[in-house]
Structures are given as structure tokens and as C-alpha cells.
Amino acid sequence: MAKVDKPKILVVNDDANSLFALTSLLAQWAEQESYEVIAARSGEEALRQVLMHDFAVILLDVNMPGMDGFETAEAIHQRARSANIPIIFITAFVADELDRLKAYQRGAADFLFTPVIPQILHAKISVFVALAMKNEELKRQARQLNQRTTDLISSNRRLLQEIEERKVAERQNHAKDEFLAMLGHELRNPLSAISSAASLLGLPAVGADATIRARKIIQRQSQHLGRIVDDLLDLSRAMSGKILLNRAPVDMAALIRNCLETYRTTGRTADYEVHVELETGWVDGDVTRLEQIFSNLLDNALKYTPPGGAIDVLLEVDEEDVILTVHDTGVGINADLLPHVFDVFVQGTSTLDRAQGGLGIGLALVRRLVELHGGGVEADSAGPGEGSTFLIRLPRTERITEPTLQIMETNEQAKPNVLLIEDNDDGREMMAMMLSCYGYEVRHAADGLEGLAVAREYRPGVALVDIGLPGIDGYEVARRLRADPDMQNIRLIALTGYGLAEDQRRVLEAGFDMHLVKPVDIDSLMKAIASLTAGAAAAPATATAATTAAVRS
């Protein structure tokens, strides 16, 4: 329990004997009444004591040289902190009504005449001391009440914050549940098509046309699964800050035209009116990621716009930014959803008749990729049925002309023998068969140590090495091959499911010439082998970046 100071009584008298008599008299009751007595010999000294202490009551002599009692009382009550201290004037003279009036005007609470009657003094002092103690108790209770109120307000604020955080967590959990359900749906659809097509190929009396269609379905749906995996990995990398941009000057108008041409060629925009207005604008960015940004915006417009609707693509340039706007006449966005359309796991209602399907994570990825480029993204909609508008700002840069690398034709290049080191049996068998169909002589191995043994015997021109091998991994395989003088000329291509810039760096440091991200389509693989075995092959780092971009696109 905190220590409580005793009430204090100030006795002011210029006469030493009178001062001693009053303080001694008050000291008799000090223990009983629980107060403390302080003495002052003048008005000036009294004012100094008032500056240092709070007093329950002041016994003030009227007739003092220099500053008399009335002047002292007036000075005490002019100070805000001491304005309410009760003052009892003590005088040896009979005070008339004018004296009393003057005293009360100076803030006097009472008058005592000398010689002072002890019982009367005790009674008066007791009242003021009790009143001071009561006031102090009230102040203490008020402080406790204020502290309690502050604590309650703080607790209430924390409770409201916890309630809001719980609501947010519940919304996020619900959104994740919906996302997982959508992911299951998006995975099962291509898997079902692949399974059915594979079963069809195994049936007797299957015609050539049916076989061709089944193969195309398997290829198309496998690519679709690859895109789903890429989207999930890209989102994870973007949210964890692990995407590194390969920056270069990019003409956004040319990039958008190329993307739109791809969409037209594949027929994805055939049922829509697409209006395009492009102003030439250059940005310092990653071509692959900028294509990803625009493709996701266009995919979003196609998803939520019924066939026959219109999509407007506008590219403008101001002094500081290149501004891309994609507007559609689709289903629009509810006002409560609009602030959250770029959040992870947030998408429109699953009951919409969407033209393209997908995971609904494209806009979250768009925002993160735009931010990595130093830009910003906005969404706007007048409401359901009123369409949507997405606007992206990217920092503008000046056009920089770079020399074009000359790529040699390699169609007549002699095909090298190939070593394939892959621990997945099905993947190893299928890739070996595809390479054989393209005229390559292929040997293969199921782990790193076996692959080294085959390499010493076979002496391949190119080795395709999976990174995640049992025994020793692909990095160690490359290091050992590079350390052997007889096998230093083997061109090494890493096959991996890891596509970060850090993964590419590790691949090159281990001694690989190129880095391909699974799944690798056969065209990209053929180009990679041809570029490495050409007489004027590109530098390893350049080839890695270019081939990785080709596989990821």
C-alpha cells in the first residue's frame, strides 16, 4: 500500500514566543489527529513554504512587519494550487466589522483572538484536518477511478481489436477453404481428361484420329496443370519476396501486342470485342513478369465477361508513368469486395458462369509483381453488372537501344549423344523416348552415382541432369563431371522444379551450362540442346535466362 503523507498545518507569526506557543500547543494533538506542523517567521517565508507543500490550514498572524497577514493571504490565494487553502487569522486586537470584511475578502476562513483558547483551536484544527484528509481520500479515489477507466478503455480497445482480428482470420480461413475447393476442382478437371485419354489409348480398335486427339488432350491438359503449378509457386514466391526481376528496357506497347496476338491465335478472345489503343511507352522491367501481369488482367476480364462482351485495353504515357488500363463489360464487382480484390485467396462468387476457370489468385499476383516493379495497381467498378476497370502505373524509362544477338541456325548440326540422369522412372522413360524420336542416341541412369559411371563409359555430348537425385544430387554430379579432365567438355543442362533466381545461380556455380524448369516441353528442350551444341553457343548465363524465360512463358 502506498504511503500517505500527513496533512500539514502552517503557523505564521513574526513573534518568536507566540510562534513557539502555537506550535507547541498544536504539537500536543499532532499524533492524535495525525498531522504535521510547520512554522514560518514572516509572510515571505510563508510563501516559500506554500510553494513547497500543500497545507490543510494556515494559522496566519495579522500584524507582521513588512508583508502583513492580509497581504500574505492575498498572495497565497493568487496561486492556483494554493487558492483554496483555508486561512485562520490570529490577532491580538479586537477586529471590527471592516477588519473582518477585509479578512474575508482576502480569503479568510475564520478569526481567532489571542490569547487562544486551546479547546477552540483544537476543534477548529480538527475540522480542517479531517476535511483535508477527506479531500485527499477523494483525490486518491478519483485517481484510482481514472486509472480503472483508462484500464477498461484499454481492455475494451484490445477486445475490439481481437474481435476484428478474429473476424479477419475467419474470413481468411473461409477464403482459404473456398480456394482449396477451387484448387481441387481445377486439378481434377485436367487429371480426369488425362486419365480418360490415357485409358482410351490403351483400348483395342482405337482409330488413328482418336489416338491423335487423345494425345493432344494429354499434352494440352498437362500444360494446363503446369500453369496451375506455376501460378501457385509464383504466388508463394511473390508473397515471400523471393522473386528477383531480370530487368531490361521493355516496350510495353509491343509486349501487349504480342500477348494479344497469342490470345487471338489460340482463339481465346474470339467471342469478345477487344478494343486496343496503345501509346509507345518504355519501362525498366522483367519481360516475363510484365507479360504475366497483362495476361492475368486479360484472363480476369475474360473470366467475368460473358461471350459477346467488350474488353478495352488502353496504354497511355505521362511524364512519370506508363499507365495500362483494362476495362471490361462483365459482371462487375460488389462494393464490399472491391477493397479486397487484390488480397490473397479472395475472388468473386464461385457461382459465376466464368468463361475460363482458374484459381482466382491472379490479381494478388498482379499486385505483388507490379509493386516489385515500383508501380501501383487500382480496381474500380460501379457494381454488379457494370463491368470492371483495372489500372496499373509503372515508372516510365527512356528507350534504350541494345544490339541484337545473332543466333546461328543449327538445323544441320550433328546431333550429339545424350545422357539422361533422372530418378523418376516414368519421367525418365518418356523423355528418353521423345529424344529418340527426334533422332538422339540416349542413355539414361536413375541416380547420380550411376549417371557418373555411365558418363565415363558413354562420353555423351550433352547430359540432362535432374537436381533432386538420390545418393548425390545434381549439383554434385555437375561438380564431379567438371573436375574430371576427360569429361569437362560435356554440355550440362539442369532439370529442376525450382525456378528462382537463387536456384539458377546455384546451377551455374555447380558447372551447368543451362537451367530448365520442369515440366519441359519438347520444343524448348530441342532448342536448348541445339543452342548448346552449336558452334557459337551463347554464354551460359545468357542462355540460362533466355531458356528459363521460354519455359516459364
How would you describe this structure to a colleague?
This is histidine kinase. Residues 182-398 form the Histidine kinase domain. Residues 128-155 form a coiled coil. It is built from 15 helices and 17 strands. The chain has helices at 16-33, 43-52, 69-78, 97-105, 118-201, 208-239, 252-265, 287-303, 362-372, 425-437, 448-458, 474-483, 501-510, 522-533, 540-552, and strands at residues 8-12, 36-40, 57-61, 87-91, 108-113, 248-251, 273-278, 282-285, 310-317, 321-328, 376-380, 388-395, 418-421, 442-445, 462-466, 491-496, 514-517. It has 4 domains: 8-116, Rossmann fold; 182-239, Orthogonal Bundle (Helix Hairpins), CATH 1.10.287; 248-395, Histidine kinase-like ATPase, C-terminal domain (Heat Shock Protein 90, 2-Layer Sandwich); 418-552, Response regulator (Rossmann fold, 3-Layer(aba) Sandwich), CATH 3.40.50.2300. A 5-stranded parallel beta sheet has the order 2-1-3-4-5, with helices on both faces. A 5-stranded mixed beta sheet has the order 7-9-10-12-11, covered by helices on one side. With 553 residues, it is α/β, with parallel strands linked by helices. It starts with 7 loop residues before the first strand and ends with a helix.
